[in-house]
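Blinded run. Sample ID left blank on purpose so nobody reads anything into the name before looking at the predicted structure. Input follows.
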Amino acid sequence: MALAGRHASGWKARRERQRDATRDLPSASNCGPPMKFIALIEYDADKQKIDAAFPQHREYLRELLGDGRLLAAGPFTEHRGAVYVYEAESREQAEEWVKGDPFGAAGIVVKWQIHPLLYWSAKEMVGSK
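Blinded prediction complete.
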């Protein structure tokens, strides 16, 4: 019991430090310059649907990559989803790009989460105050 309590208080302290570190970050509605957003995507397991829509999906990602909106992307090893890193003006804009993916129109994307990134790389984190 004491161990669980110690872990819980450590978790609370870490959470408070995180909240303090992000308190002055711009909100999605007034973020100004582009921010990085990570999208965690969950797919339907229907391999035939994925295979049929894959060429259009890949072309869509190439378009986003080509104009700088997409910084990184890749499927999870079990092919049940993917992660995308966008540079966007807002969370809503990143969400529109998720919705515009041909995998969405084909019913492959079943749910997603979008989170702003505080740091893009470990180098940024180490160099920050």
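Unblinding after everyone has recorded impressions. Confidence is low (pLDDT under 50) at residues 1-9, 26-31.
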